[in-house]
Design goal:
single chain, Ferritin, 2 domains, 3-stranded mixed beta sheet, 10 helices, 48% helix, 3% strand, Manganese catalase family protein, Mn_catalase_dom, Ferritin-like_SF, Ferritin-like
Length: 288
């Protein structure tokens, strides 16, 4: 059950209108790594979590906060669109600069949204629920959540350098700080899972087949010229899970011969090595 508070978590008010930047800001609202994605991702991970207590609360708390960020950014976009010119002639009357800004705006903001935010990215592509992941495995999900926050912070950082509006910058500073906290939080949650003995690395840590190929699980295969990759911590030394040592293979070999596939069913009209006539009669005989 959700309760909506009319107050925003942080102020979302620009110093002036900027329809072109409103379009860019759509990326962190409805883009792949935007707030709509992380809000729904964390909420679904929480709803799917089978462990009552701290982990479920963590996911639902952060998902709820991110939904508040959706409202903040939507509010900022709507305010950036205030008093925006609706025609190029109207924009040009003010100044050439305003005309240029008009040229960078998103027509859908006015045609579809009536001067408000939309559930789309900066290119106008609708937000897609396939962006979210809720696997039911907390270790796998928490690692993806670190990535989601890193990508989100990266995009906010880029947007920060695309505007001179002090009000917009203040909101972006807040979002950057929360993205920082959330990255640290998910990394801490990963370690907590290990300490609680719930999940480890690799994911899944437990595998029913004890004959998993251990050598392949620790060998770095170098397919590039030179051996620069051998200097990495992934090519030698202990593995992060402490269960063995990395190996480095500069000349990976094949472990199976070249595949030779049998002729296909002629009714699928593929190109077969034995010729269509001969194979067709062969299949016909077999069916008969």
């Amino acid at each position: 059950m959700f309760t909506h508070m009319k107050d925003l978590q942080f102020e979302a008010k620009p110093d002036g209108p900027d329809a072109a930047f409103a379009r860019r800001l759509q990326e962190i609202l409805g883009g792949k790594w935007g707030e709509m994605t992380v809000a729904n991702q964390y909420l679904f991970q929480g709803w799917n979590c089978r462990l009552p207590g701290k982990y479920k609360d963590l996911l639902l708390d952060v998902g709820t906060e991110e939904m508040g960020h959706v409202e903040m950014i939507s509010t900022m976009i709507t305010r950036l669109l205030e008093n925006a010119p609706l025609a190029l002639s109207e924009a040009a009357e003010d100044s050439p600069m305003v005309g240029a800004i008009y040229g960078g705006s998103n027509p859908a903001h006015f045609i579809h949204g009536g001067g408000g935010a939309l559930p789309v990215d900066s290119a106008g592509v609708p937000w897609n629920a396939s962006f979210i992941t809720a696997s039911g495995n907390l270790m796998a999900d928490f690692q993806l959540n670190v990535t989601a926050e890193a990508q989100g912070r990266l995009q906010v950082s880029r947007l920060f350098n695309m505007t001179d509006d002090p009000g917009v910058k203040q909101m972006l500073r807040f979002l950057l700080a929360r993205d920082t906290m959330h990255q640290r939080m998910w990394l801490a949650a990963i370690e907590q899972l290990k300490e609680d003995g719930l999940e480890g690395m690799p994911v899944p840590e437990a595998f029913p087949d004890s004959k998993e190929f251990e050598d392949f699980g620790r060998t770095y295969l170098d397919f590039s010229p030179g051996n620069d990759a051998a200097e990495g911590a992934w090519a030698s030394g202990p593995t992060p899970d402490g269960k063995g040592e990395f190996r480095y293979d500069h000349s990976p070999r094949a472990h199976a011969p070249e595949p030779v596939l049998p002729p296909g069913d002629p009714r699928l009209y593929g190109t077969n090595p034995s010729g269509p006539g001969k194979l067709a009669s062969k299949v016909k005989s077999a069916v008969t």
